[in-house]
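Milestone 3.1: sequence recovery, worked example.
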């Protein structure tokens, strides 16, 4: 107790010697409280450090997972890979910063997956990722050192049918240049030719479908218009083109070839399914490939166009084709 009669508030009290026993008891309590608070603070600090370390570990795991051969996780498309165990990533003299428990094996053309499976088994490991389109396989095996990694690479490289064996390494730097694709054709750089495709995000849709590797369902599209030009260069590729066709070239009322000889039905078919792999126009659905089945029906035959007529651009009941001018019978009845 001080001269004002107040109890001291600081935990670090001086030795009270033979002073008031009550004050000595208070001092002991205060020192015990201070020690308890110190221990409690230390415990909170340990918990905080543990949380931070845990978050850093998870962040590192996520970083490593995306840096080393990122998982595509799309087995339906023939490509996938597993996450990297961050505890296996080490700094090595020969390979840099890599997981010592993984190698990538690229097989030569014509060599099937069983060869990679054999290599994985001999390494007492397993295939945990693959990109079938280039015959590349990611193999996980038990290893804790650079020496074991080097031995595994040498062993895998000794097999017949193996093209390249490598570590699962980081990729640095940036790729420069112009990405290829059907919409890089000069045709789409002229005027506003690409405007409509840009508005619907067609180029991005192509990239997403290509990269996803998803299995596409068969689609049938019918075009009710003029017949498809028989030798149309864009009606090629994997897409099927069935139905009505013609060898006649599109001509104007004076007999001059117009629109490259392509009638309206041919142009409509082109917008939908023109071959995107041969340059020039790209159909909005051409990425479907052999899953796309086009059927063109010529509606300008039969009862609607049976009566010959003299050409007259001011008469909407008269329609001119490459083989002559005819009345549109339904319009004629409405007149």
């Amino acid at each position: 107790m001080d001269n004002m009669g107040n109890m001291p508030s600081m935990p670090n009290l001086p030795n009270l010697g033979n002073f008031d026993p009550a004050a000595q008891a208070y001092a002991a309590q205060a020192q015990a409280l201070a020690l308890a608070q110190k221990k409690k603070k230390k415990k909170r600090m340990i918990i905080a450090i543990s949380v931070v370390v845990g978050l850093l570990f998870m962040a590192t795991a996520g970083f490593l997972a995306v840096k080393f051969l990122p998982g595509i996780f799309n087995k339906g498309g023939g490509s996938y890979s597993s996450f990297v165990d961050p505890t296996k990533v080490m700094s090595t003299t020969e390979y840099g910063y890599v997981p010592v428990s993984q190698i990538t094996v690229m097989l030569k053309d014509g060599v099937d997956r069983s060869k990679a499976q054999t290599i994985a088994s001999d390494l007492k490991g397993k295939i945990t990722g693959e990109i079938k389109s280039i015959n590349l396989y990611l193999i996980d095996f038990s290893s804790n050192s650079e020496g074991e990694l080097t031995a595994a690479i040498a062993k895998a490289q000794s097999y017949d049918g193996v093209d390249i064996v490598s570590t699962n390494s980081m990729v640095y730097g940036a790729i420069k240049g112009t990405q290829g694709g059907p919409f890089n054709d000069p045709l789409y750089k002229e005027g506003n030719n690409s405007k409509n495709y840009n508005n619907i995000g067609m180029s991005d849709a192509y990239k997403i479908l290509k990269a996803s590797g998803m299995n596409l369902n068969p689609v049938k599209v019918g075009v009710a218009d003029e017949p498809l030009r028989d030798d149309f260069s864009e009606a090629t590729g994997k897409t099927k083109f069935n139905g009505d066709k013609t060898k006649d070239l599109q001509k104007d009322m004076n007999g001059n070839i117009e629109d490259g000889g392509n009638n309206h039905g041919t142009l409509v078919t082109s917008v939908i399914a023109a071959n995107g792999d041969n340059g020039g126009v790209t159909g909005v659905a051409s990425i479907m490939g052999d899953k796309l089945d086009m059927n063109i029906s010529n509606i300008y035959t039969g009862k609607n166009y049976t009566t010959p007529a003299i050409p007259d651009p001011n008469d909407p009941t008269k329609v001119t084709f490459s083989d002559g001018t005819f009345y549109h019978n339904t319009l004629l009845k409405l007149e």
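The first helix runs from residue 21 to 67. Confidence is low (pLDDT under 50) at residues 1-30, 51-77.
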